[in-house]
Amino acid sequence: MSFDNPDQILVELSRLIVGYFADAPYLSFLVGVLLSSVPLIAIFPGCFAFTTWLERKGLARIQNRYGPNRVGPFGLFQPIADGIKMLMKEDIVPTRSDKWGHLLAPIFIMIPAMMGLAFLPLARNMTAVAIDSGLLFFFAIGSLATLAVFLAGWASRNKYSLLGGMRAVAQMVSYEMPLILSAVVVVMMVGSMNTSLIVEAQQYKPWVESDNPLFQCLGQIRGWFVFTPWGFAGFLIFFVASLAETNRSPFDIPEADSEIIAGHMTEYSGFKYALFFISEYVSAFAIIGIGVTLFLGGWNGPNIRPPWSDDPQAYLIPGFVWFFAKMFFLMCVMIWIRGTMPRLRVDQLMGFAWKFLLPLAFINIFVAGFYYYAPWYYGWPVSIGVLWTSYRFLSRVNQDKRIVRKRTYKFA
Amino acid sequence: MTIIFIILSITALTGAISAIFLKNLIYAVYSLLLLFVAIAGIFLMLMAEFLAVVQILVYLGAIGILVLFGVMMTRNISGASSERILSRGWFFGLVISVLMLFGVLIPGLAFSELSSSPAVETITPSVKEIGIQLMHLNTPALWLTAVLLTAALIGAVVVAVPRNYSSKLFLTYKLENKNKSSK
What ipTM, to 2 d.p.? Predict the structure, then answer.
């Protein structure tokens, strides 16, 4: 094992372990599969535990409170305490509920959440399933969570659960369209649906391979698709749609606490409830990770070649550091939005998806096609102009024409 | 390989048979989805990764939800229905389906030139090839499909909107708005 390329240490380690079992082909295959899947299943729920703490702290700061501060330093061990509490809680199954559906729904919902992680390129050569149609596979599997949510809502035999399930299905089906259409732009530009290739396409090769460390750093940033007009618009559409797709605030109407208690999770308790919670956060991580891959350069970040190495593809800082840094940054933005924005109404939610995001995503596809063929001094201004005009036009058209009377308070 | 195939085909058959015989409609839908998943697995086993993706995307993601919506809209969703599952002419249906299986499907498979083993050893990038096929050689077919789907979409909208009622509603809505704005 060589230390020429610190970026690849984990990859080489796993190759070493697999090579140890080279005599038994089936065993080495099994070990390889376990080595690429078990870390994902271990790390992302760990991230989930940390994020619950982060979210509670962040929301508390936004609301001028302290948040959890009793268990461990800064309340850091709060997730562990929560987990133990969830494990020890009684599992209550309503008498009139559909027993099988009630049992299977939390199990079903974990499958798409965990499978989505397999397509994330955490670093160079660190994609668990690096297949040619990885992006399409991700979206195909992402749409399956709807079925489990519906099953949970139906099997609980509770009006609130059923309403939550119906709302979730309607919302997820509508927001899948802008989500996928905003990702199509990147596929058009790269010419591949392989997530690893999409990340590599976001490097500016002449600078990355130069000898100047500053240019090496910048070369891994200037190629990010978010710095192009179509990429910026696509990223915004993708991020908003992913908020809705994972039922995050302000699109959390399927589990709107003040209206329908907890939606499809109303009749769940104990660890089944925790499974719903975990799957929600893990799928949020997965979808943010795909957003980072598509628009924010994946594992690219300010990174230099180690001075002792001759390998032109060696990096000093492992790529997954940047990947997780960007992922947690976007997670913090999600928490920030949750602390700031009020929940949308159902009709506003649907109108936003079909009348605003969808046309904008379509226009973005045309703009990207134009940008691809036009020279930059022509492509940039025209793309920005078209996108800005269509944004203004769509907001004008969708504006609520009713005159809103200023609210007056009589008794306060 | 054969072990995986046996597991997948048993899953598929279980799903299909229980989709027919289960009395609970929602259970039937979910066992149908089990069948779709098993078929996607068989595609994946045959190294047809794009086909597997499309199977999941279209059959589970779209058709599954469509069927669930259909069940939701048409019946009260208490679940188990007391209606009997076999209709009156079940015997003739059985005879015809057995004849189809042994008369058409099995001879067709036996005399076809398609190989039953995977055409490639490893998963090769197939998406690009499919795209080139669709965009270069089979473009008319793609266009025809698009036109057909658009026609179906327009037809669905026309069927869904009751003409007289909606136009009246639309007019009154417009008039009301006009009155409001004039005030």
Answer: 0.78
